[in-house]
């Protein structure tokens, strides 16, 4: 149960308060209030602030119950042995009984007259199902025909017609209230029905449903509703509608071919009103109803076309619909099918089944055709399939015709083909036979216009002549019934409501495809939602009135004559229909709540009734039958190679994955961004996962140099950020190190004992002072940092002056080169001769420890740098000791701790040192330690083989290019960015992950032979197969023969750092240089880029850490930004010796400071199920908003909640009230702008601007 509850404040209060005062009027203490309706079991529990007034509660309850009158509701509490009726100004109590309402469900509005339903087709029967579900039996269905099933199936279809859509998604009792396991009417969900039943079976299923649900008892068949008249005045509560009904005699025939039916003759010009012959045996009558709907259908009249010279043609010409065409005429003949709409598919199929010789499909435009598998995929998909994904699915079948669906006139897409939307005047024709016939050359699509006919010849506008043609089937579309407007006195359609009256509803299967995402290829889901919406408005008329008065019902309107002069007002396109549903679902939470689980159902029922095996078995059987019968009929040579069915179970499984993961987030991202009103050109974007983008990255023309197997430092658990440095209670360890001199030690320290076996050096600061001190008690000498000596003494509980003598004081630089004995013997004789000496570096500070730092170059970034500079290790890894495996456990190089995880080994290592008397102090200190920014677990550094781009060599060029750019703020460019460039280090571009763009290097086992693959085509040559995707699982098995006798070369394991991909954007997004050369050259360098600080998270860490710079957060924010730009610069400089952009603006970040109040309230509401849109718990912690910390409200939820005031009251009253979360400072009228949504996106943009 959902309740729209909006805290309400006294209008005298000051809502403009900001800062600490904001929201102060609203107590944050909540109490669970239990509302009980006396005499019922219903209890509604609400979390309310204790200061909530009864008046406020009344408002909330009224909205929840369909805006019933406030004054009807009262609250009573028990006080001692008496009862008290609470006053408007009283505060709410914990337990109250509610009077004046019967239920917490909205009461259904009662009308004085019954409901009328015109049309006993798909939608009419669906309406009856919904009414009966709610026990609303007072309705009548009228139809001109003597059967249920509607014009579409009783008249437009013919003997050979089959359902193009899977029955699972079409059947009339589709919907969770009617077709669900456990519901037995109509035999339950149709698991045993054919996947694509014939016309007769479809009609049978309508009849079955009408019979089982008792719908026949409500039917007035063979009755023409001639006109509808309004009784009373528009908008008045007591208005009604009079349906003037005339009994008619439908004329139908059972044989295919021959003359038009009587009413078809009559209907040619005027449509069907009055076209049917009157049944004089029955009387005309008037039916009065309070609400009615008309579902007239729109595939009514075949569009008429007359060719010049038609009479000379000398062959068979007929319309390819209704019972007119005798398909015996096509057997063994050359057939022209004129038009490329949904009916074309049926005619191709029928011709192919009858055994024509050849089909010319002549059309002005080649429209998209949908294979069976793709239709099923769309109808089961939740969330909807994106345009790009849909095209990729279609592509598989289109390959058989040698055509790329991406090239269709109806497709708009970005250059990288990652986004697509469709605009096509006709809906999809669905079927596989189209593709098979094209593959065998039995059907040829001829994009042209018919100019004229002569004997057995059709002359096309291009000049081409199609000769020896025997048959022309006209399939140039179906027109709606233009008399519908007249019957209903319809001036316009507002949404789906005739003349904007919420009691008069009409929709017919909208025309065309206008979509970027595909939710269904069939009327099934759409009809379910239309009827639900219509009934909701009938049931809760107050909601309509309130929303309308408040100006929120910005529904699309349609007038006759738009877009063509003969288009009636009732005939809308898909855009209008989607806009209506979308708008209403935004402004009416109650309706939205009803549709919440629809996606889940849609997916479930498709798989339940038509699992993929059933689908594929049926599709394959049909395919094979064509293969067989075409050979048998001689249409295809008997020895022609069999064409395998293009879709497989494995392929479908792959597509499920694709749509689930990446595409899901893609569409989610788009939805959120568009709701925010942020300007992003999604239609022309690119995805780095796309083959074309990835191919750009592997283009061999990029003059990037890979260092031949260098070592880089990387953390075990992936990335870490500055925020990821959390405090850790760490072990602090002093240890004595034997010098060459007897009983003399260097007192070094570490917080990572597990790195001690890998120690190769010690490091002091050359500028700091060091002491040699001698214990008066033992004579032992220690070298220590002078600044830390007092702290050391206090740690080991000694008195520096009394217990020790200072022997000397020296600068750190003077200690350089002092050799010492290794602490452990594991690498004695294995490390380079230069190991185990004192080194100097400025990074050693006086902030912690002893000012003498232990160096393990395999596990510390600074250690690595310092040891590299001193020649203790070399760039190619020589001298490195590295006894830790991939799981963080010791290898056999350190047998004492073999197999122990490093962290577990800490204890044993300290024990061993203690036993050997090398441990001076073991204590704990809280210090900064890198943690994984996702999982919050401590990380360790480890050296791994990596691939670098040589940036150091290009420093000068980078600086010169940077100087050509303009930055806001400028100091970022001139100071930090410039400084960074002057010290730019080689850029490690490899990552050890699974997902990412694989590095295109194939190497021999000794790494001496390295082949860089430069294009997909080159890779395909080696692979001997088509490469559809460049991700690891598609290419890692490919091996390349060595040119140097080194066997087969294998791809290196690594993938590119994702920032390499980001830096490749200017080139990769355009698939340059493979294509888009001109476009690229026009747009490079970019005139302007803007980068958000949060874009550079990974970069910041890896690059900053490599620089050895410790930065504070404030500085880091700017630097993060600059690094993204740098990477772009690096590639730009390497590739074109040019900066990739001219101007740059650094965006800031909004921190999580506004969420606290919001979060508390949303948590309460969520817990009690009071809002249909819940908000995740969150707290304002002042940090950057982060998914891990969950310190922000989900923007989607935020929008949903922002809508709530709209569903509640008039614009004026809302304006005066604060928002649901009082402290946010967002003004109601701005929010109202946001939410009142004729076109949400457009409005949002206006708002944002
Ligand atoms: C050959 C064909 C194949 C199709 N295949 C598919 C498919 O595979 N999948 C799919 O989803 N869709 C398909 N469709 C689309 C089809 O339009 C819908 O599936 C659905 O059947 C339409 O139902 P409807 O109730 O909107 O309209 P209709 O079936 O057209 O019914 C409208 C009814 O209203 C009655 N009516 C109108 N005005 C009056 C009046 N004034 N008085 C009395 N009665 C009146 C008419 O007599 C008619 O029976 C197909 C359509 C055709 C023609």
UniProtKB/TrEMBL annotation:
SUPFAM superfamilies (alphabetical): FAD/NAD(P)-binding domain, Nucleotidylyl transferase, ValRS/IleRS/LeuRS editing domain
Protein name (record): isoleucine--tRNA ligase
InterPro entries listed in its UniProt record: aa-tRNA-synth_Ia (IPR002300), FAD/NAD-bd_sf (IPR036188), Ile-tRNA-ligase (IPR002301), Ile-tRNA-ligase_type2 (IPR023586), Rossmann-like_a/b/a_fold (IPR014729), Val/Leu/Ile-tRNA-synth_edit (IPR009008)
Keyword flag NADP: no
Keywords: Aminoacyl-tRNA synthetase, ATP-binding, Ligase, Nucleotide-binding, Protein biosynthesis
EC number: 6.1.1.5
Catalytic activity, as annotated: tRNA(Ile) + L-isoleucine + ATP = L-isoleucyl-tRNA(Ile) + AMP + diphosphate
Top-level taxon of the source organism: Eukaryota
Organism of this sequence: Durusdinium trenchii
Residues in Aminoacyl-tRNA synthetase class Ia domain copies: 659-1152
């Amino acid at each position: 149960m959902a309740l729209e509850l909006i805290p309400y404040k006294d209008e005298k209060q000051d809502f403009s308060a900001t800062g600490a005062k904001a929201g102060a009027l609203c107590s944050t203490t909540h109490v669970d209030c239990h509302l009980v309706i006396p005499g019922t079991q219903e209890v509604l529990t609400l979390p309310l602030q204790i200061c909530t007034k009864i008046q406020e509660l009344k408002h909330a309850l009224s909205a929840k119950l369909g805006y019933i009158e406030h004054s009807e509701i009262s609250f009573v509490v028990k006080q001692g042995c008496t009862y008290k009726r609470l006053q408007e100004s009283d505060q709410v109590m914990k337990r109250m009984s509610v009077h004046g309402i019967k239920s917490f469900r909205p009461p259904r509005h009662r009308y004085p007259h019954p409901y009328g339903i015109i049309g006993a087709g798909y939608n009419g029967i669906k309406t009856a199902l919904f009414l009966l579900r709610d026990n609303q039996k007072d309705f009548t269905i009228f139809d001109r025909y003597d059967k249920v099933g509607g014009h579409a199936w009783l008249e437009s279809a013919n003997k050979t017609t089959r359902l193009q859509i899977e029955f699972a998604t079409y059947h009339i009792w589709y919907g969770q209230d009617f077709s669900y396991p456990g519901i037995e009417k109509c035999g339950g969900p149709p698991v045993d029905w054919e996947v694509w039943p014939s016309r007769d079976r479809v009609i049978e299923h309508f009849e079955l449903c009408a019979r089982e649900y008792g719908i026949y008892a409500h039917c007035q068949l063979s009755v023409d509703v001639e006109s509808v008249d309004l009784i009373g005045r528009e908008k008045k509560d007591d208005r009604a509608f009079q349906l003037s009904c005339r009994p008619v005699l439908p004329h139908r025939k059972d044989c295919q071919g021959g003359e038009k039916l009587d009413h078809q003759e009559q209907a040619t010009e005027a449509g069907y009103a009055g076209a049917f012959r009157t049944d004089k045996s029955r009387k005309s009558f008037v039916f009065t109803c309070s609400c009615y709907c008309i579902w007239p259908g729109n595939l009514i009249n075949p569009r008429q076309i007359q060719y010049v010279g038609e009479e000379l043609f000398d062959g068979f010409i007929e319309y390819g619909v209704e019972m007119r065409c005798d398909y015996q005429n096509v057997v063994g003949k050359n057939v022209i099918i004129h038009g490329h709409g949904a009916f074309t598919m049926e005619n191709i199929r029928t011709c192919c089944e009858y055994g024509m010789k050849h089909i010319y499909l002549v059309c002005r435009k080649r429209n998209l055709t949908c294979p069976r598998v793709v239709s099923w995929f769309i109808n089961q998909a939740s969330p909807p399939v994106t345009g790009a994904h849909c095209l990729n699915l279609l592509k598989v079948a289109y390959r058989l015709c040698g055509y790329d669906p991406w090239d269709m006139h109806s497709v708009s897409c970005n250059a990288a083909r990652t986004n697509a939307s469709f605009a096509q005047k006709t809906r999809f024709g669905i079927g596989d036979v189209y593709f098979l016939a094209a593959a065998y050359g039995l059907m040829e699509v001829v994009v042209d216009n018919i100019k004229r006919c002569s004997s057995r010849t059709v002359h096309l506008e291009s000049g081409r002549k199609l000769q020896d043609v025997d048959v022309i089937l006209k399939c140039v579309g179906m027109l709606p019934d233009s008399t519908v407007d007249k019957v209903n006195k319809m001036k316009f359609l507002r949404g789906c409501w005739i003349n904007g009256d919420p009691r008069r509803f009409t929709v017919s299967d909208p025309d065309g495809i206008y979509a970027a995402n595909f939710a269904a290829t069939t009327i099934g889901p759409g009809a379910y939602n239309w009827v639900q919406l219509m009934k909701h408005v009938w049931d809760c008329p107050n909601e309509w009135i309130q929303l309308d008065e408040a100006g929120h019902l910005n529904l699309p309107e349609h007038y006759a004559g738009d877009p063509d002069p003969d288009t009636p007002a009732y005939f809308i396109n898909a855009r209008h229909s989607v806009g209506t549903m979308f708008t209403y679902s935004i402004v009416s939470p109650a309706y939205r709540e009803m549709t919440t689980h629809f996606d889940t159902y849609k997916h479930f029922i498709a798989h339940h009734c038509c699992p993929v095996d059933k689908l594929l078995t049926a599709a394959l059987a049909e395919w094979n039958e064509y293969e067989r019968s075409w050979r048998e009929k001689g249409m295809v040579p008997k020895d022609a190679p069999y064409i395998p069915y293009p879709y497989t179970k494995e392929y479908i499984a792959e597509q499920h994955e694709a749509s689930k993961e990446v595409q899901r987030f893609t569409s989610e991202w788009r939805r959120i961004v568009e709701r925010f009103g942020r300007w992003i050109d999604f239609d022309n974007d690119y995805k780095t996962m796309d083959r074309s983008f990835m191919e750009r990255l592997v283009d061999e023309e990029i003059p990037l140099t890979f260092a031949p197997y260098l070592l880089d430092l990387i953390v075990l658990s992936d990335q870490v950020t500055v925020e990821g440095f959390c405090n850790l209670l760490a072990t602090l360890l002093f240890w004595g190190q034997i010098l060459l001199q007897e009983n003399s030690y260097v007192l070094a320290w570490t917080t990572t004992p597990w790195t001690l076996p890998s120690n190769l050096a010690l490091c002091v600061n050359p500028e700091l002072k060091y002491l040699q001190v001698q214990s008066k008690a033992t004579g032992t000498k220690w070298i220590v940092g002078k600044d830390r000596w007092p702290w050391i003494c206090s740690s080991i509980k000694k008195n520096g002056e009394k217990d020790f003598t200072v022997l000397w004081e020296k600068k750190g630089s003077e200690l350089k080169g002092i050799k010492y004995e290794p602490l452990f013997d594991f690498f004695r004789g294995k490390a380079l001769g230069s190991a185990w000496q004192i080194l100097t570096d400025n990074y050693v500070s006086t902030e912690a420890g002893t000012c003498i730092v232990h160096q393990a170059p395999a596990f510390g970034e600074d250690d690595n740098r310092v040891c590299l500079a001193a020649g203790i290790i070399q760039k190619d890894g020589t001298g490195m000791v590295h006894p830790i495996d991939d799981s963080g456990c010791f290898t056999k190089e350190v047998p004492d701790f073999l197999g122990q995880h490093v962290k577990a080994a800490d204890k044993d290592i300290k024990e061993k040192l203690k036993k050997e008397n090398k441990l001076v102090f073991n204590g704990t200190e809280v210090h900064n330690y890198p943690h994984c920014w996702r999982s919050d677990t401590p990380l360790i550094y480890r050296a791994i083989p990596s691939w670098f781009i040589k940036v150091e060599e290009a420093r000068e060029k980078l600086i010169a290019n940077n100087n050509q750019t303009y930055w806001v703020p400028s100091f970022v460019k001139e100071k930090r960015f410039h400084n960074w460039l002057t010290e730019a280090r080689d850029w490690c571009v490899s990552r050890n992950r699974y997902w990412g763009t694989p590095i295109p290097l194939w190497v021999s086992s000794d790494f001496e032979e390295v082949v860089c693959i430069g294009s997909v085509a080159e890779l395909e040559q080696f692979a001997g197969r088509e490469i559809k995707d460049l991700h690891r699982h598609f290419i890692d098995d490919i091996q390349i023969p060595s040119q140097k006798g080194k066997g087969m070369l294998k791809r290196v394991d690594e993938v590119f750092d994702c920032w390499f991909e980001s830096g490749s954007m200017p080139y990769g997004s355009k698939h340059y240089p493979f294509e888009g050369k001109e476009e690229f050259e026009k747009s490079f360098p970019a005139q302007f880029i803007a980068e958000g600080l949060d874009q550079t998270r990974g970069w910041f860490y890896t690059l900053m850490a490599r620089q050895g710079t410790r930065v504070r957060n404030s500085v880091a924010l700017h630097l993060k930004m600059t690094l993204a730009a740098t990477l772009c610069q690096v590639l730009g400089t390497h590739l074109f010796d040019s900066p990739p952009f001219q101007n740059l603006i650094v965006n800031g970040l909004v921190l999580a400071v506004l969420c606290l109040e919001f979060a508390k309230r949303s948590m309460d509401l969520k817990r009690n199920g009071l809002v249909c849109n819940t908000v995740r718990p969150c707290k304002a912690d002042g940090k950057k908003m982060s998914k891990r910390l969950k310190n922000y409200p989900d923007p989607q939820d935020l929008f949903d909640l922002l809508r709530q005031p709209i569903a509640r009251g008039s614009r004026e009253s809302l304006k005066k009230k604060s928002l649901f979360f009082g402290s946010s400072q967002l003004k109601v009228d701005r929010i109202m702008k946001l939410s009142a949504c004729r076109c949400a996106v457009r409005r949002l943009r206006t708002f944002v601007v």
